[in-house]
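step 3/5: co-fold with fructose -6-phosphate
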Amino acid sequence: MCWIFGYIWTKDSADKILLHWLERLEYRGYDSAWIFVWDNNGNSQLVKSVWKVGNLVTKVQKTLDQTKNWTFGIAHTRWATHGWISEENTHPHHDMNNNFVLVHNGIIENYFMIKKELEAKWYKFYGETDSEVIANLLDDLRTGDFAETVDLVVNKIRGAYALLILSKRNPGEMIAVKLWSPLVFAYDNHDNFYFSSDKQALSGYADKLIYLDDWDILHIKDKNYQIKANWIKISRKIEDMDIDSLEASKWDYKHFMLKEISEQPAIIKRICKWRVNFVDKTMNAEAFHGMQDEHFKKIVFVGCGTSYNAWVLWTYFMEDLAWLESVAFIASEYEYQHINVDDETLFVFISQSGETADSISVLKLLKSRWAHTFGVVNVVWSTISRLTDYGLFTRAGAEIWVASTKAFTAQITCIVLLALFLGQKRWLSKAKYDKVLSELEKIPELIDEILDTSEQIQEVAKKLIQYKDFFFLWRHFQVPIARESSLKFKEITYLHSEFYPSGELKHGPLALVDANYPTILFAPNDLLFEKNISSIQEIKARDWIVVTVSDKDIAQSDYNIKVWTTIDELYPFVTAVVGQLLSYYAADGLGREIDKPRNLAKSVTVK
Ligand code: F6R
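step 4/5: write tokens
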């Protein structure tokens, strides 16, 4: 899972542009990176390095021949899928005879079988990657016509890919082709052509862009481009580049994660501004276009990771506020289940990036069966937003850093609004509807209070980092928060954490009880407060350490993180922020690289 870039022609030195893009999108994968550049006389140079893009920048400064005018180049930041993190396994890959060079984002599922076939034909491989197999397959199937050769190859490989391919025999040409993995083509008025896995990298460079469809073959030749699908020349919709420059700044924050956490109150206000009038308690129906259809009897939610956790909350809201049957599924599992598609079911996809391969795969499957689909997506014009019938944007702003925080809060804000919107059309009482809305208006202030008193969380985090295993416990509306906090905690501290419904403890997990296994229990003063106290007693009876997150003083707990009171349905907003900060301070105390946790990347564009 990687991020790929291509730049062709004259505006600036290709090396500068490519390095700038790599730095911008490094958070998407940071196991290794490289640039490969050409000049108009056919000279080329490759510079690669493992780990951070900063290493590559230093190496380029030291080793790239600055006397050449590099007008053409490709680049790549890698998150390893096949093959260890090493310079050999770092792209660009070429075939044994050096006829083709390519960069690949994705996974080729049948690469091993193709590799065996090629080895039987005496092809030799220098590394272990699936991408190198594509390069040799291009050579093996070479017909003399560049585009035809690429077509033969894509008919043989299975899996997901976005490929930029160069051919020694076709200087000045580049072919791009994709299946499942994202790829954007863009250009400006000066005959500069750009390719990127993500349009954000291109802001400030290109004026127009085209999202390539699966199987499209885009061929750049003689300063022109042509797109073909099934051998027929086609045109795709040309769009304006409409995003602001993506220069992220930490301001005074120690880490980007902390900055994104602190943006949450403003984001909630922004999301509500256009959708709700808090004075007369009305909602803007236009903002929920596609959800108005009252014949839906069931809602099925699909997502991954943090986005899935937001969905779990939704199922509770739907039943509590909208009285509508709803279920949430993890995308990577759902695809292999028997899915009932009918006219009364709405399938809702939630995703920050809109590019998560597991979710897109289910979405495509459902679309082929004419299902009704709706997207709740942060990145405008991402694949999920383009493929779903209707949807809304969560508008959290660009979430750059790996651990999702503000996108989650934006998602749950949209979810409350959607549940209220549907609820008022169903059986939700006016009194409850009004109450939830007026409490929602106060949530940004409550989060500000948590941020202002975050030393209490910092203190607890300091005490916790001496342990290695943690339980996050929940009941009812706190389900998604315990799930999400446990995910965030393990993601950035690298400590083991599990989440469990408190009621399940005595059905097995209590066997793990010992004094080295702290428990974090979300126990606000809600309907189930008394039950939570019983759980604490069960734990304390065995001398476990208990951290509670509550608006009440809990004598039985070892440490209580104090939050502010709201209604049962909206406690998740405050407890979620505590979970984020607890994870953050624990990771910081352990000296972890918080914004770029090991082995992870921001957008998971492979299945
Ligand atoms: C965790 C995290 C991931 C993502 C997941 C889905 O902090 O960021 O678990 O939530 O990969 O990504 P999206 O929401 O882009 O579909």
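step 5/5: annotate
The chain is about 35% helix and 25% strand.
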